[in-house]
Amino acid sequence: MTTQRKIILGIESSCDETAAAVVSGGDTILSSIVASQIAIHRKYGGVVPELASREHLRQIVPVVREALEQAGITLQDLDAVAVTRGPGLVGALLVGITYGKVLAQALGKPLIGVNHLEGHVHAVFLEAHAAKLPPPELPAACLIVSGGHTVIYLVKSDSQNGAAHFSYERLGGTRDDAAGEAYDKVARLLALGYPGGPVMDQLAQHGNPRAIRFGEPKMKGNPYDFSFSGIKTAVLYHLKRHPELQPEIDARKEALASGERGADALRQLASTATLDLIASFQRAVVEDLVARTIAAARQNNVCSILVSGGVAANRELRASFETEARRHNLSVFFPSRALSTDNAAMIAAAGYPRFVAGQHEDATLNAEPNLPLA
Ligand code: KG4
Ligand code: ZN
Predict the structure, then answer these.
(1) Which of 2, 77, 158, 202 has its CA 20 to 30 A from that of 44?
(2) Percentage with pLDDT > 90 across the chain
(3) Stretch among 39-43, 197-201, 205-209, 216-220 having the lowest mean pLDDT
(4) Domain total in the chain
């Protein structure tokens, strides 16, 4: 291998974003294109797997073409193709994998298989590099928190393992719903649109986070595990006990049906009681995420905390992590919104050390919907 910076095309299609990106030297983003399917899944209140696969098929060619164009390169300039092999929706993964396989074969370039969760870890390092900041110090505790995942890993540097610069240990994770899924389900109960997180994040600023007390999930065993299905049910029972909130829910449903999705418009249709409910829900979720991650970080004597995934955009989560990390003398790192949510730059970056180590895939590479990271 020469010292020339190698160029990797990343492809991501594990859920509802079709993404392609060109990354040089494993750390410099030349382009990152994401085609989101939110508009397609919105009316169902969640991702519909069959529709996701069909949309990936429609998008993959133009998305890759645009990624190359924006990077100012051609297919011949690529040194390798890295593709998400799992975890994710099997039909969705297969679109990216099949396309990546054929492309790599046609070009005679190596194919690299990447774990989507490892991509989320790399997103934090890509962000530091883009911001010209030193990389987070390891070992780190990394919370990956999105619509599909809520999991804490211990991330260590691993010079022994040529195929990845990091090694991972799973410290805990959700036993039922992911945190983003809880946001989306509660948003559905309250008629706040899909995805629920961004709107609830905004509306929560206008409510009293201490108005309603949601009990902590009672779980035996691993103190770093999460459970978010209980709080969703608690919101459902709260609404049953407060039928006076139904007319405003109906009004918001009507507004959503007419295409109105702005947080300001929805706020006009939300009573103080609803804003308090949203703020209290958010507080409970954020406190739980922060407390367990900080506890896991301290127990493992880490230097840094990394927070990645769609929910990492939540402003209360960020503020609360900043405060708590400072209190415990830990540094905390978040990617920008574009790198937090699913993207292919993180897949190309995670593929880079595998490429350098010669860990290439052949035509047998297959989708692994439940692929663990550790
Ligand atoms: O990473 P992502 O784009 O897709 C996957 O789930 O893989 O994350 C989307 C999730 C959704 O559940 C959405 O409601 C949530 O992240 N989300 C937020 C915020 N922005 C997105 N949750 C809370 N606060 C936000 N600001
Ligand atoms: Zn993801």
Answers:
(1) 202
(2) 93
(3) 216-220
(4) 2
CA of residue 218 to ligand 2 center, whole Å: 27
CA distance 263 to 250: 16
List pLDDT tens digits, range 318-338: 999 999 999 999 999 999 999
125 and 188 in a common domain: no
Amino acid at 343: N
Query: CB 247: neighbour CB atoms within 10 A?
Result: 11
341 lines ligand 1 (CB under 6 A): yes
Which residue CA neighbors atom 13 of ligand 1 most closely? 197
- Determine, yes or no, domain membership for 82: yes
| pLDDT tens digits for range 28-55 | 999 999 999 999 999 888 899 999 999 9
Which tokens in the block code for residue 196? Answer: 């629920």
- What whole-number distance in Å separates Cα of residue 141 and Cα of residue 155? 6
The whole-angstrom separation of Cα 180 and Cα 197 is 7
CATH number at residue 266: 3.30.420.40
For the Cβ of 84 lying below 6 angstroms from any atom of ligand 1, the answer is no
Where does the pLDDT of residue 84 fall: very low under 50, low under 70, confident under 90, or very high at 90 and above?
very high
* First CA to last CA distance, the chain: 29
Q: What is the pLDDT of residue 164?
A: 62
Partners of 168 in beta bridges: 155
Boundaries of domain holding 14: 7-134+338-356
Ligand 1 centre to CA of 310 (Å) is 4
Q: What is the pLDDT of residue 70?
A: 98
342 CB under 6 A from ligand 1? yes
